[in-house]
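hey
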């Protein structure tokens, strides 16, 4: 039997995309209408925002662990979190978790390495872009990274929290993100990480200046691979 996948959610749009990927991409392997058992738990995004804004990693970890314990109690074998920013607390969570996790940046990094990318542009919340979630893992894989400049980081952050997490996807925001990604390309990046789990709902890979690494879908696919292991 496939392993039971537990989704520790944070924002609704990103979690929904992860869930749809888990359920929608596997019938070719498991048969029509089939997918691994999937459960999801989320505290309100508002509960996460205060500790995110104050940099309280322990409080973020507490919320993640609360979800993890609930999911493990109903049988989840694998845990994933389709939110890049709160992976800043991953080390605390992993050390106390009742079930093993797949780190979103590792799923992205391993895909980048398999495609031969050497330098990634990182997009996401301003907390993610300036934080440690991606650089350490990418460096161990021999991949360097760049982030947008301060002004672009602030505007991307505003787009995420005022538009994307609320299910608002504006054409002007899509064009703006493409402009930022072009700047990253001009600085030598050969691919871009869509490191906010809602950004893949806005950016069109066919219209993007760089090849995209969709963190949400890559995490879901890594979970599917693990769930289907013999």
């Amino acid at each position: 039997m496939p392993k039971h996948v537990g989704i520790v959610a944070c924002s609704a749009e990103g979690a929904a995309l992860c869930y749809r990927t888990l359920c929608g991409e596997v019938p070719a392997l498991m048969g029509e209408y089939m997918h691994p058992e999937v459960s999801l738990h989320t505290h309100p995004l508002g509960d996460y925002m205060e500790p995110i804004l104050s940099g309280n990693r322990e409080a973020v970890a507490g919320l993640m662990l609360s979800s993890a314990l609930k999911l493990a109690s109903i049988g989840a074998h694998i845990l994933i979190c389709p939110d890049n920013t709160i992976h800043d607390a991953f080390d605390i969570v992993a050390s106390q978790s009742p079930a093993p996790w797949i780190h979103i940046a590792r799923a992205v990094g391993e895909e980048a390495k398999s495609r031969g990318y050497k330098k990634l542009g990182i997009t996401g919340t301003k907390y993610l872009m300036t934080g440690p979630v991606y650089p350490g893992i990418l460096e161990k894989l021999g991949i360097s990274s760049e982030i947008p400049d301060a002004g672009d980081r602030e505007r991307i952050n505003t787009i995420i929290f005022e538009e994307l997490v609320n299910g608002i996807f504006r054409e002007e925001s899509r064009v703006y993100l493409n402009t930022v990604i072009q700047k990253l390309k001009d600085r030598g990046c050969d691919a871009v990480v869509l490191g906010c789990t809602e950004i893949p709902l806005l950016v069109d890979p066919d219209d993007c200046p760089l090849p995209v690494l969709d963190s949400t879908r890559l995490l879901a696919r890594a979970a599917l691979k693990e769930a289907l292991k013999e």
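The beta strands are 5-9, 38-42, 78-80, 119-123, 144-146, 191-194, 212-214. The first helix runs from residue 12 to 24.
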